[in-house]
Amino acid sequence: MSLSTPYATLNEFSRRGIIKTLQFDKTEDRYEGNLEEHINLICERCRKILDYRVLIMVDQRKVAKKTGFSVTDTSLEYYGLCRECREEKENI
To answer: Which of 39, 45, 56, 67 is geometrically suited to a Cys-Cys bond with 85, CB 3.0 to 4.6 A?
Structure first.
């Protein structure tokens, strides 16, 4: 099987809204199945991505009503060090 087959499948799933494509400047794209509103916590050292559930997000309908802007996707990332990398760094 060619590597293009799984990537084509992932892209099709993303296009259909089954999964979400995460695009980053400093690393390759990732895919996730968590479609609920959340913040991606991205470790700058090991590149692990943790989800942090957010209870309150901006209502996209209010944004559209006030500005005329139609929101098609959202993404929120926090960058830093995960617990393991932070503890490892402190122990050096």
So the answer is: 45
Domain extent listing, the chain: 1-34, 36-92
Confidence category of residue 29, pLDDT binned at 50, 70, 90: confident
pLDDT digits (tens, 9 = 90+) for 71-84: 888 888 899 999 99
CA 2 to chain CA mean position, Å? 26
Q: What is the pTM of this model?
A: 0.74
> Looking at domain 36-92, does it have CATH number 3.40.50.10140?
no
